Amino acid sequence: MANLKTTFAGIQAPNPFWLASAPPTDKAYNVERAYEAGWGGVVWKTLGEDPAAVNVSSRYSATYDAKGQVVGFNNIELITDRSLEINLREIEAVKKHWPEQALVVSLMVPCVEESWKRIVKLVEETGADGLELNFGCPHGMPERGMGAAVGQVPDIVEQVTRWCKLHSRLPVIVKLTPNITDIRFSARAAKAGGADAVSLINTINSITGIDLDQMVARPIVDGKSTHGGYCGPAVKPIALNMVSEIARDPATFGLPISGIGGISNWRDAAEFIALGAGSVQVCTAAMIHGFRIVSEMKDGLSRWMDSKGYEKLEDFRGLAVANTTDWKYLNMNYKVVANINDDSCIGCGRCYISCEDTSHQAIAKLPQPDGSNRYQVIEDECVGCNLCEITCPVSACITMEQREADKPYLSWIHDERNPHREVGH
Ligand SMILES: Cc1cc2nc3c(=O)[nH]c(=O)nc-3n(C[C@H](O)[C@H](O)[C@H](O)COP(=O)(O)O)c2cc1C
Ligand code: SF4
Ligand code: SF4
After folding, report:
1. Residue 355 annotated as catalytic
2. pLDDT single digits (tens) 10-40
3. What does the pLDDT look like over 320-348, one tens digit per residue?
4. Which domains does the chain have, with CATH numbers?
5. What's the angle, vertex CA 387, arms to CA 386 and CA 388, rounded to 5?
6. 196: CA distance to ligand 3 center in Å?
7. Residue 388 beta carbon below 6 angstroms from any ligand 2 atom
8. What is the pTM of this model?
């Protein structure tokens, strides 16, 4: 059986599945039950200075797929609304009872050295394993000069990270905001400040929908609303891209990354690890389905690793990084075409409509004697865009097949159709 043991930024855990800083980790009752369920670690819900934050009612909204499953989750909650003292006391007790599991504490205080110095010392005294600096909360806290207001300014990211490293011996993980143009700048700043790791993503600025009767966005607080932070499966592609950007940036190469954003099952986790993540964090999936999902995550990941011959996480960690490159390095001479399997085709015509109306008119509709239609790809017209494969409702009915390249690898950099091509290399 594959070994899921994890060492992330010097922090040991029985597995890479950690609960992200959020309601699932905001008190001892939750965290202890999460450990019992098998989570390898938690990042305690963000602590701040007293007086504790005060939350509004209501707080969450969501987007759904056609079957009613949550695809995106939105919240306007603030950091912990319990006192610092209670949180610290509980953290100390939980760590004592659960020495093997990772316990990282998320922090957010004003951008004043004394404030950071004071809180990191208090956390250190609890015996916690590490600190996570919340530079990402996108609502409420930025209006007070914290959260994303810090994460959006690389100089401040670097400064605060430096203070924490100076005043604490604990590993410092900097949690980044995705509400920024280029995530690499904040990751570089964290590294420059001495961060032991980065974690990403925090939530994305969002409005999930409008109540058209009340003419107000959701969630509704006495007839008004505000933008929230988006998370859940819908944000996974954005998170994966940002993780890959940092993993393949020479300036941050090798900096440990904790992957967060839409992780709902073992496969999602494996994808983040393949892009270089050393641990993964989960929030929405646990909030929607409960703590028990971790059993399937651990089991699925171990089984898949066994099937691939990977004995430990390091055996496949980062293997997809080198294959994630800039567009200009892709092979211009590589060619795939769509192929329709007549045996599984149900004749719905969706592929034809999408290719005919919006792509390359590369699917022929052939009327049959019985009044039905047969659909056939016109290979010479097909550019291999994948649209019909994506549109087809029948699994594996349309497959993309590689055609033998009659020319060697050629990147756009050297392609003669590129007016700015490099010549003579
Ligand atoms: C209700 C709620 C509260 C959250 N509170 C915090 C917080 O206090 N500190 C923090 O760093 N992130 C917070 N987050 C963000 C999560 O830790 C995580 O970064 C984000 O939800 C993406 O992961 P997911 O797609 O698995 O939910 C919160 C998320 C939700 C849904
Ligand atoms: S891959 Fe694109 S171009 Fe080719 S048949 Fe399908 S939709 Fe048309
Ligand atoms: S979308 Fe799929 S099932 Fe429908 S006609 Fe095209 S190939 Fe057949």
Report:
1. no
2. 999 999 999 999 999 999 999 999 999 999 9
3. 999 999 999 999 999 999 999 999 999 99
4. 6-315 (3.20.20.70), 327-402 (3.30.70.20)
5. 95
6. 50
7. yes
8. 0.96
